[in-house]
Amino acid sequence: MSVAGLRRAARETVSGLPREFWWLWTSTLVNRLGAFVATFMALYLTLERGYSASYAGLVVALHGLGGVVSSLGAGVMTDRLGRRPTMLIAQSSTAASVALLGFMVDPVAIAAVAFLVGMTSNASRPAVQAMMADIVRPEDRVRAFSLNYWAINLGFAVSSAGAGFIAEYSYRAGFMAEAAMTLFCALVVFLKVPESQPERTPRNAKGAAAEPEVRLSTVLRDGRFMSVVGLSFVVALIFQQGYVGLPVAMGTDGLSSSDFGTAVAVNGVLIVALQIPATRFIQQRDPRRLLVVSSLLAGYGFGLTAFAGSVAVYALTICVWTVGEIINAPVQSSLVVRLSPAQGRGRYQGMYTLSWSAAALVAPLMSGLVIDHYGATWLWGTCGVLGTVAALGYWVLMRGLPAEEKVTEVVAVTAAEAESDAASGAPQGSVERAV
């Protein structure tokens, strides 16, 4: 493709999205640019504080557990308090807890605050996803989620390198930098992002809501959606092996930590380079086939790791499962929104977030158990099996999914649309759009 063609593709990918989305996107990018704790927690505890590797592992696990605990609670807050208040509370609390963690010395206090950081940093995710679903037109959601995922990876790629230099100077400075950038995210949301939660369903003459209220029990009884959550957990288990099973396997092959860093950097580079071009390809394709293909690419991409022995071959296997990741992330996020009622998006997004948080906890246990008892080859074979199971699950699950154009939902009106409505005399607040 020519340079002019690439420019046109990029322009088409980013055009037509509401202004509020770009402020939310900016907040996400800044948040990931400041990601220090999750990246350097283990090194901080072992090198800076002198604690054992087992204690560092415990603290990292508690950080992940905090994310699991907050997923559902944050989803409920998103629906009850609203998207904007939930994000402000979560980001402000994250800034405070991260700054506090930088001054903790006692091992019990460090563990407790790390758990708190995990809770608060994960609490904004259901609100961000729900707000994107509110403000972006249904036909643009795959594109919006893809751009958001691109921002997450771009921010992480830059922060990983920058945080390394900061850590050489002062780990505490890294904590303070993350706290400041997270507080800046809250400021962006406060100043630029209006509440987007759809108006509650009006009550009838008897005082009862026209539609039943969405509770957590409603989500749990939604068989199709909970099946998506289960399949998401399976896929997340596979992708997590890139950060828990892969470094161990490369170490047993005699490769160094720098070799692992070189190989896994391919993942971030490919996502940053290909996510936007890939968006044009996937946004008009059948989501069922995309999810099937992405699951197979993930499972068999990791399965091919069994045949790797050099950095170059490991990098090639990473290329395979990274393509699966590029396809899976925006398509699955769009599917979650499609299956979620507008008034219950927070709870549904919270349950979806839980699947990834739980996988982040289970994956290290899974990889350690399989590698210790059976060897790394069995781990990669298991990934292949899990990818096949997920692909079959998506194929069966989505066979009866209604066509998008037959569904109607309420989507929040952007500020520009509201001005247009006001000028034309149309009612303001929300508008029904075909999905």
Strand order of the largest sheet: 1-2
Approximate shape: globular
Helix content: over 70%
Major sheet attributes: 2 strands, antiparallel
Residue runs with pLDDT of under 50 for 5 or more positions: 405-435
Which architecture name of the largest domain does CATH use?
Up-down Bundle
Q: How would you describe what is shown here?
A:
With 435 residues, the protein is mainly α. It folds into 2 domains: 174 residues, Growth Hormone, Chain: A (Up-down Bundle); 183 residues, Growth Hormone, Chain: A (Up-down Bundle), CATH 1.20.1250.20. Helices cover 76% and strands 2% of the residues. It has 18 helices and 2 strands. A two-stranded antiparallel ribbon has the order 1-2. Helix 14 packs antiparallel against helix 17. The chain starts with a helix and ends with a strand. The C terminus is likely disordered.
